[in-house]
Amino acid sequence: MRKRDGMVIVWPAYLDSNLSRAQGRRVPKNLGAPEVTVEILKKAAESAGFDYDLEPDKKYPRNWSAASGYLVLGNPEGHKKKRLLLMLAKGVRRLVAQRESAKLEAERKKTKKKRKGTKR
Q1: Residue 103, CB-side half-sphere exposure with 13 Å CA sphere
Q2: What SS3 class is residue 74?
Q3: How do residues 92-110 score in pLDDT, each as one tens digit?
Q4: Domain extents for the chain?
Q5: What topology is assigned to 7-117 in CATH?
Q6: Would the pTM of this model clear 0.85, i.e. be above it?
Q7: pLDDT tens, 52-76?
């Protein structure tokens, strides 16, 4: 891998609350979100105003069996990686919460249709 000055690599596993620290999580569990993908990272970086590059087919070394991809964030202010992860985690939690609420709403609509069609 080539050296990237002023850039920070962020894997989805860094922010995944389902993983342990040994499996690659780098933020506290309460600041992470479940099932983080590279697409969620991309949207969170856009909303936070970061410059980024996307590498979608790369494999995280601690879980090499699944291609998760990673995000390369621009860091012109020279923040530490931990601070960038915490800034990104806020957007990731918001996006995952939106995804979960949309999933629950779709499920609720589905059960309403089933109830409507049954006769008593």
Answers
A1: 6
A2: strand
A3: 999 988 888 888 888 888 8
A4: 7-117
A5: Phenylalanyl-tRNA Synthetase; Chain B, domain 1 (3.30.56)
A6: no
A7: 999 888 888 877 777 788 999 988 8
